[in-house]
Amino acid sequence: MDTQSVGGDMTGKGRVVMLVDNKVDGDSRVQKAAESAAAAGWDVTLLGLVRTGKGRSWKLGDAEVRLLPLKAPLAKRHAERHRSLLRRPLAYPPGPVAAYRRQWAKAWRADVATRRAALKVAPKAVGTPLFRRVEGVRLTVAGPVSNIVQRWVGLRSRHSTAAQQAGRRLRGPLDRLFTATWTAVKGRRAWRRLEPALWDYELTYGPEIDALQPDLIHANDFRMLGVGARATVRARAAGRSVKLVWDAHEFLPGVRPWEDNAHWIPGNTAHESEYAPYADAVVTVSEGLSDLLIERHGLTERPTVVLNAPDRPADAEAHAVTRVTVDADGEPEPTPDLRELCGIGPDVPLIVYSGSPGPQRGLGDLVETLPKLDGVHIAFVVPNPTSAYMETLLARAAELGAGDRLHTVPYVPHWQVVRFLSAADAGCIPIHHWPNHEIALITKFFEYSHARLPLVVSDVKTMSEVTRSTGQGEVFTAEDTDDLARAIKQVLADPEPYRAVYDKPGLLDAWTWEAQAEVLDELYSTLVTDRKKSEPRP
């Protein structure tokens, strides 16, 4: 057999295609996985997406990153495409009809008013005396009729708007009945009716994967699991041996839905359940999540745990010359100064939160503590500092009289994160009690640790247990702003004992991406070696 025909670059370890359903920037786990795998000798292409505009590509170390433009017509809900006689029988069909009718009714009313005025002020311009008499009779009838029609059109338009909104929210009894019916009829195949937008990802990524002919597909999270599984099936049907790694970042039934509707969780969990059996190996972020995945999907082998750990700071700086962020002279750009971005000096108490924002992540609780923390500033390091949600938090801080002590700043490249965060006095993780929050040490936990920050964490299970056992911070009751303020004051009053914990031999060494990259490389090598052994000899 010609080794090149098996699909992969056999001059190295093999070709890996990584899949993620975001624009890559800001996803440090995926970036580090691609870059470290390429550094270990794999031919890596990382496929992400852009939801608007054109795609683009760049190099991440030796890995190639490609962003594909996602076309998502299947994301339109039924109510956005069809008239719902059961939901709102008076509503117009989706499309331009309602707007047309409203404008037409307004135009008729304007015409009637103008013609009435013309009879009064310019009768000769209207026509003959006989025509004017007929016109007066017509307008006597047209006035009230046009008013009734305009009100009727307005009523139907309001029903149309309500139908569209309800159809997008998908929270009503009809939506729950629809979900229950298709789930009962189709089981794990029900996602085709509940979340047909998952096909948009398939049609975007599928041809690219097929053209790359990988030896191994690394599918990140639930949406990409199906894309990777179908690509694996196609490749095997064509005679190529391909291995599939599913990287489960979260326990899907336990997430707060990205779209709060009756279809989202049942549809996406059905999709995950259909394609989980196709994975040759499962990777995940914690032992707790491993247990849940084994129970839910009946896995015969325990998932491989790859922690969301950061680069070793010294290694990140040593390799900075290979990164894409350089200045005009081709030199690595210096790490931004967090305090400078916040406009504060070195002696001002500063608490940092770094990561994706959202109500369930407790950022609102941190804002509410500001009046209880005299002189303390808070920095939110987030993907989009000017998002609507962040503007809401800034407005609330201003209402509390502390607008000058809340700062929103953008992400930095993942190799700069630890040094960037180290300018703060403490790192906060105020997340609420959701199933996924209980079972893992999340990325910011490790980033704060390598930045040698005292921690302030809510009493979610895994992180609070580790924080208490190491002594690297204080634990507070989730959503209790008084207790949160108490914990912050405690670590700020005497931070050195918490920082001293990081001097414990071996503690931070295990919490590095370098250690995790070795685990991932070994898994890839085992899978591809097993694949090569199973192929027939030429």
SSE diagram, text form:
Blueprint: E1 15-19, H1 28-39, E2 43-50, E3 56-60, E4 63-69, H2 78-81, H3 97-121, H4 123-126, H5 129-169, H6 173-186, H7 191-194, H8 198-212, E5 216-220, H9 221-237, E6 243-248, H10 264-275, E7 281-284, H11 287-297, E8 304-305, H12 313-318, H13 338-342, E9 350-354, H14 363-369, E10 377-382, H15 388-399, E11 406-410, H16 417-421, E12 426-429, H17 435-438, H18 443-450, E13 455-458, H19 461-470, E14 473-476, H20 481-493, H21 496-500, H22 507-510, H23 513-534
Parallel strand pairs: 1-2, 1-5, 2-4, 5-6, 6-7, 7-8, 9-10, 9-12, 10-11, 12-13, 13-14
Antiparallel strand pairs: 3-4
Helix pairs in contact: 1-23, 3-5, 8-9, 9-10, 14-15, 14-20
Your description of this structure?
The N and C termini lie close together (4 Å). The chain is of the alpha/beta class. The chain is globular and about 105 Å long. The model is unreliable at 1-10 and 318-328 (pLDDT under 50). The longest helix has 41 residues, at 129-169. Helix 3 packs antiparallel against helix 5, helix 8 (198-212) packs across helix 9 (221-237) and helix 14 crosses helix 20 (481-493). It has an eight-stranded mixed sheet with strand order 3-4-2-1-5-6-7-8, with helices on both faces. It contains 23 helices and 14 strands.
